Amino acid sequence: MRVHDLSGGDDVLAHVETVARRALRRYDVAPDAAVRLINVSENATFTVDGGGVRTILRVHRLGYHSPEAIASELDWAGALRAEAGVRTPRVIPARDGSRIVTVETPGADTRQCVMFEFLPGGEPPHDRLVEDFEPLGAITARMHLHARGWARPPAFTRFHWDLDAAFGASPRWGSWRDGPGMDAEARAVLARLEARLRDRLGRFGTGPERYGLIHADLRLANLLVDGEAGTSVIDFDDCGMGWYLYDFGAAVSFIEHDPRMPEMIASWVRGYRSVADLPRVDEDEIWTFVMFRRLLLVGWIGSHSAADIARELGAGYTRGTCELAERHLATP
Question: Please, are residues 244 and 214 in contact by the beta-carbon 8 Å criterion?
């Protein structure tokens, strides 16, 4: 299992903040800029306020992406903004023009940092999820159309979100079997779910009409809704090759139990089809991808105990996954 590198507690977080402050020396930022940690999930994300300007600084975790892979992420996010009308944050280069700043700390690690513009907006309100899933479907379709036709740079490299990444010998987010609160009964139910998912996805296939470059983490926290600017898409850190419908599964992360799921699915599909084709046979597999993402998240919670949401959800998420799995397995 890959253990999150920020799981070492306050000492590690203090070190990461030191890295962030070292990185700022490379930017045109006021020396007295205020640096505040706002999120620890995979990477550490800071707001930087100085000279009346706010920016976002991301300090990358260790061992997840190479500098080439980070550059590839930035390339696609920039191309989406320039070519597909998808609002994404611009990268703010360092004084020497670098998009990625490498920070070395004596006797410790070397980390990559990226600075982004600060975009307005906030997470979609939960009382408007059905309505907001329609424009999300349209945005997702624009991203998928762009991915299908985009000429990737020669050095482009990103990982895959396939069955091996989910359930192979070294799952990218850790094994669901190590999820919190896992007991023999839960393992039995979720093993049946994994077998069902392997079968469905094996038959669904990875043809180019169904599998390609995706955001892979379009959950609500990575959408910024603003009344004037519209919806922005942030945090492409997990983008890679995967099933296009996985982007819907990711969109409902942590809310898969919401009783409005049928309406949210219908709204998303309606928005998607306003931009691109979505065959009915593909639509019929949406719940396959909801459960695929859910099972990955059980492993993620187990291997990311330092993340706020992992601590909050804990064993309850495993129990809820078993309940959803039972219902899913009862469906022909």
Answer: yes
Q: Which residues of the chain have pLDDT under 70?
A: 1-10, 107
CB 129 within 8 A of CB 167: no
CB-hemisphere CA count at 13 Å for 227? 0
Structure confidence by residue, pLDDT tens digits, 80-119: 999 999 999 999 999 999 999 999 877 678 999 999 999 9
* Backbone φ, ψ for residue 315 (5° rounding): -65, -25
Is residue 110 a contact partner of residue 177, using CB atoms and an 8 Å limit? no
Q: Please tell me the distance from the alpha carbon of residue 54 to that of residue 89, in angstroms, as a whole number.
A: 13
Domain boundary assignment for the chain = 10-117, 126-329
Chain length of the chain:
332
**Domain 10-117 in this protein, CATH class:** alpha beta
- The pairing of strands 44-50 and 101-104 is unpaired
Best CATH choice for the domain 126-329 from the list 3.90.180.10, 3.40.47.10, 3.40.50.300, 3.90.1200.10: 3.90.1200.10
Rounded CA-CA distance 114/91 in Å is: 7
